[in-house]
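User: Quick one: structure for sequence A, then sequence B.

Assistant: Sequence A:
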Amino acid sequence: MSSGANGMDDESGKKLYEIISDKLTDMIIGEGLKPGDRLPSERALMQMFDVGRPAIREALLVLHNNGLVALHNGRRAQVRQPDADMILSNSTPAVQNLLGNPGTLRDLFFARLFLEKALARHAALDGDAQDMRALKRALEESDAALGDRERYERADIAFHRVLFNAAGNPVFVVVHRALDVWLTERWRQLDRPLERDQASHAGHVEIFESIAMRDADAAERAMEKHLTLAWEFWQARLGA
């Protein structure tokens, strides 16, 4: 298999380190390695694949970026359990690049709409007293933040975060953090008048009141209206 660390090695055009990372992934899965188990040393891997150290290190870095191993100086790579937070965090640079495409931005926004409609319905049907208190506090902060653009951005994010948290699913919490990172930077680029934030807050009020009344249909409609109006604003400003 020996060739340069960045050389091509098969008909697919994959680089050498990519082939090795695929084989190491197969080894981790095929041998049933568990979190905490260690891979062979770099020297042993060099002998196993008949390649130089650079190719092994690049392959291990791929596994690290994929959340499959942890790397520590002076120690062998350690198998780890991938989690949603790491997977989504590692995808952020690619997503940010794709957001330059208006179609991708629209797809991501409407994926968020689909999810948040369900979360508003869930909060209306199953939200407990603690969720309601958290939502009310977030609403009050949304109101108090009007007129301060940066503070309102934080309050807006916090209001929606309550609904993601209320689902009781850690994956949703991670998804919210990812959406925050992916979309907020774009939102900050827009010349947003106070009236837009006031309309956003009015949407929060409508969502909260529907949830507080335990009216799941109304909560879902309020969320759809709230995010659709936000999208129309984005569309007008970004040409998305």
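Sequence B:
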Amino acid sequence: MAITDPSWRHPDPTRSRIRLDVVPSDVIHGLARGEASAESVSPYLAGPEFRGLWRIRSAQIAARPADAPWVTRFIITPEVSAPIGVAGFHGGPDESGMVEVGYSVDPGWRRRGCARSALEILIAEARSHPSVRTIRATIAPDNLASIELVTAYGFTENGEQWDEEDGREIIYEIAAA
């Protein structure tokens, strides 16, 4: 099943007005090159902390265009004109039906429920695709806020891995069904 919706909305719009919008390919490629985009992203999203992510996603969608609607999206809230973070999957479902979530909220917008709303949108979107069987989150062991967030939604620890970008990560998973 292909993703055709450029904007994912919260499953309960009375609880959250946050949405996740596709980042156009040309914007991803520009951010990967370190160029400011016409999308007026925040310095946080255009900064050096995200350069590696944009490079990975740029190469990924160049090699596998079908991943473009799945990967990193802008977190949009009606209160401001620029994106306040990113959220999405690391790609479409793999051969076992697993998708991995990822999210990051601008420090000025943290502790306001934005990551929670983004995760709720990602879980709902994953569950709407029959080919998705498992939803995964990989989190650094010292990122207690993210660990508390995913475990509140039923994710359970399922091992660990070493990530070349982020180092040691604990793997958390839930069934999509």
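The mean pLDDT is 90. The radius of gyration is 15 Å.

User: Thanks, that's what I needed.
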